[in-house]
Amino acid sequence: MASTRAPGAKKGILERLDSGEVVIGDGSFLITLEKRGYVKAGLWTPEAVVEHPNAVRQLHMEFLRAGSNVMQTFTFSASEDSMESKWEDVNAAACDLAKEVAGKGDALVAGGICQTSMYQYHKDEDRIKKLFRQQLEVFTRKNVDFLIAEYFEYVEEAVWAVEVLKESGKPVAATMCIGPAGDMHGVRPGECAARLVKAGASIVGVNCRFGPRTSLKTVELMKEGLGATGLKAHLMVQSLGFHTPDCGKGGFVDLPEYPFGLEPRVATRWDIHKYAREAYNLGVRYIGGCCGFEPYHIRAIAEELAPERGFLPLASEKHGSWGSSLNMHTKPWIRARARREYWENLLPASGRPFCPSLSKPDA
């Protein structure tokens, strides 16, 4: 199987999805760049695109090499209410970095906005839409390929975001950071999806806050809700790279390990093979990750779905399928691990004999 797609004119996001093509998103920026020393926890704002552009460029490149078809601008919490006077320079620089890397492969650029801190306190539609519109003006000037409204706890605010992004005439995706219980006002996932599609989103789903299994359950509920109302949209999932079966309605941010003690929860590459396959079988064709979702996780999606896509990512040149490269090891018991059945059935230990397997959320 070829390790790259043949070069040619890039198709748009809806052209790809309408044809049944699998689109692979990117993964973790905030959590990953915090670990690498370029983002400050707490504020979680993306000044790194201006202060340390090489670090952001490198991470984009790692995701591209691993198989990502979308370079999402690193503009999480980059609105004026979070970044004051720096917001415009940050949004512009983030677009430039994403476009530069996308041009090195078969990737599209998505301009991303997220929920505001203002909504919980003021719910002023006009002021909040103004914040979204400011970012949209930069994305339009930089001519991104499509737009993503992501990480919304409340469907009302997400609908406002979609309404603003639709003003551009570009395709809009919308993902909420909710679990099966619905948004923080109690609106169920199916109803959230329906409201987003009615607002103009062509792609709907979830991102962040919850692990692979929970995220897929929520998308399934969204799919059912759309089916019940006769609405149609492409489905999208970008879960955490952590296992979080014990979190409550607020997701992993309420777990005592957030954000500095999550490493024991990291999904293996084989967990992500399963996630990718289950997402595909559910009918999801835009599959990626969010916090904790590293480039090797993206590679796992690309390798699992290589039969459907017809090619492998560049990063697979250094990775034997299902551990096959272990056949070269000198120790026979390690060579015996060079098979799919071994890794699919492994129950990995944490190495922490006095730690619980689950936690109690703080909220």
From TrEMBL:
**Where does the record place the Hcy-binding domain?**
11-305
Binding positions for Zn(2+)?
C208, C290, C291
Q: Which InterPro entries match?
A: BHMT, BHMT-like, HCY_dom, HCY_dom_sf
Q: Name one GO biological process term.
A: methylation
Q: Which gene encodes it?
A: BHMT2
Instruction: Recall the taxonomic lineage recorded for the source organism.
Output: Eukaryota, Metazoa, Chordata, Craniata, Vertebrata
- Explain how, and how many, cofactor molecules are bound: Binds 1 zinc ion per subunit.
Q: What is this protein called?
A: Betaine--homocysteine S-methyltransferase 2
Pathway listed for it is: Amino-acid biosynthesis; L-methionine biosynthesis via de novo pathway; L-methionine from L-homocysteine (BhmT route): step 1/1
Q: Which GO terms describe its cellular component?
A: cytosol
Which GO molecular function annotation, any one, does this entry have? Answer: S-methylmethionine-homocysteine S-methyltransferase activity
Q: Does the keyword Methyltransferase apply?
A: yes
**What quaternary arrangement does the UniProt entry report?**
Homotetramer.
**Record key words, sorted:** Metal-binding, Methyltransferase, Transferase, Zinc
Give the function comment from the record.
Involved in the regulation of homocysteine metabolism.
Q: Which PROSITE patterns match?
A: HCY
Q: What cofactor does this protein call for?
A: Zn(2+)
